[in-house]
């Protein structure tokens, strides 16, 4: 992938995701699409970058939706096999589900992250994805 459109998709690379860097292995970028109504963020991962396990808590409603825009990535829920992601894939993540997502080892990856509205919502960041487990993914 040579240009920004190939790497980050239609919504662009944005800025280094420094505010959340402590919750990622590798470099990610964040480009807010909108923060009014429903928060929509273009998140771009350099090859090998992934976020830590995390949970979207909500008293009612809540959760997250991922719309894959470019590259190849992974999504995994706690206790389940990882799912390979490609442009056009959608992932609906209910609240209270521990999960992670990020790029494949050899590919940039971008997705739109939509915050599903809810009451008493919060995010809990957990441990990093184990390097040995990640290394087994193709």
From TrEMBL:
**Ranges where the Cupin type-2 domain occurs:** 43-106
Descriptive protein name: Cupin domain-containing protein
The organism of origin for this protein: Lientehia hominis
Query: What Pfam family does this protein match (any one)?
Result: Cupin_2
Look up the domain of life of the source: Bacteria
């Amino acid at each position: 992938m040579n240009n920004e459109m190939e790497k980050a998709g239609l919504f662009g690379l944005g800025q280094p995701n420094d505010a959340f860097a402590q919750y990622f292995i590798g470099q990610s970028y964040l480009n807010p699409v909108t923060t009014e109504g429903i928060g929509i963020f273009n998140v771009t991962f350099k090859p090998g970058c992934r976020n830590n396990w995390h949970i979207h808590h909500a008293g009612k409603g809540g959760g997250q939706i991922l719309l894959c825009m470019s590259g190849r990535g992974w999504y995994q829920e706690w206790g389940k096999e990882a799912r390979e992601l490609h442009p056009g894939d959608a992932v609906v993540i209910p609240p209270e589900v521990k999960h992670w997502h990020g790029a494949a080892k050899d590919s940039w990856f971008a997705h739109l992250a939509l915050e599903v509205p809810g009451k008493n919502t919060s995010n809990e960041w957990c441990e990093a994805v184990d390097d040995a487990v990640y290394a087994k993914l193709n």
